Amino acid sequence: MAFNVGVVTRPSCLLVNTSVKNVQVLTTLCATGSNVPVRYTDAPTRRDELLRRLRDRGYLSSKDVAAELGVSEMTIRRDLTQLDTDGLARRVPGGATAQDNTGLESFDRRERRSQAPKLAIARAAVALLDDADTVALDAGTTVAAAAPLLPGGTRVISHSMPVLSACEHRTDLEVIGLGGTYHPPTRSFGGPATRAGADDLAADVALLSAVAVASDGLYCTAAWDAEVKQILTERAERTILLVDHSKASARAPLRFLRWDQVDVVVTDRGIDELTVRRWRDAAGHVVVAE
C-alpha cells in the first residue's frame, strides 16, 4: 500500500492519495490543532461531526455538545431533529442516541430485491456509455450492478464499497475511490472528505440511483447521500438515472436533483406506459430495459 501526500489548495489541508492494488482512495485531512480551529457554522459539516460523536459515544446531550462545538443549544436541537428525520439518529429528551441501523434498509437486503430487473437496467445503462473515458457511480444497488459490466479502459470514480470491490481485481480499469466517513447501511462513504474529493474530479458520465422519483425531481433518504449525488452530477457531462419501476410510487424526504439535470432514465419492463410518458416529458429520453 503506497501513500502519496500532496498539498491541497484549501488552507491547512492535505489530500491523501492511498493506492490499494489498482484502487486509488482520496481523503482530505485538515489540521485541527490550536492554530487552525475547526468551526462548525456549516450545517452539513456540523451534522457529520454529530454523527461521528454519536457513533463513538452512543448518546449526545444537546447542552454539552453545543458547548463543545461552540454553537447554540437550539442549533444542536435542530440538527439532531434533522438527523432523526433522516433516520440517522433517534431523538430522546435532552439529546439523541445512535440509531444502530441508521433507519435505512441495509444495502444487502436492497441488493437482493428485484435482482433481475436491476441487472437488466445495469446492462442497458452500460450500453449508453458510448466512448466515455470516466464514469462516476453512486452508492445505489442498481448502480452497483453496473460496475462489473463496465468496459475495459474505463476510469471509475465512486464512494461505494460494492462498486470499488467489483472493480478492485480488474486490471483493465483505473479506479478512484472517494474516502470519507463510512456508512454501513449503504456501504458507502460520505461527509466533508467525500465531498472534497468528488469536487476535485470530473467525469464524462454519472450513473445515479434514487430512492423515489416524483414529478418535481429525484429523492433520497440521507443528506450526506444527496450531497454526493449532487456533486457527481455537477462534475459530469451527462447524468444517467438507473431506477426500477418501484421508485415511481416510493417516497423519500430529500430532493437531490431536478428533472432538467437528468439526461437519460433507464428503468425496467415493470414500469407502466403513463409513467414512461411522464418521465420522457421530464427528462427527454427514457430507456426501458428488456
UniProtKB/TrEMBL annotation:
Protein's UniProt keywords contain GTP-binding: no
- What UniProt keywords are attached to this protein's entry? DNA-binding, Repressor, Transcription, Transcription regulation
* Keyword rRNA-binding annotated: no
Top-rank lineage group of the source organism:
Bacteria
Region: Disordered, residue numbers: 91-111
Q: Name one GO molecular function term.
A: DNA binding
Q: Which InterPro entries match?
A: Carb_Metab_HTH_regulators, DeoR-like_C, DeoR_HTH, NagB/RpiA_transferase-like, Tscrpt_reg_HTH_DeoR_CS, WH-like_DNA-bd_sf, WH_DNA-bd_sf
**Ranges where the HTH deoR-type domain occurs:** 43-98
Role noted for this protein: Repressor of the lactose catabolism operon. Galactose-6-phosphate is the inducer.
**What is the protein name given in its UniProt record?**
Lactose phosphotransferase system repressor
- Please name the source species: Ruania alba
Classification lineage: Bacteria, Bacillati, Actinomycetota, Actinomycetes, Micrococcales
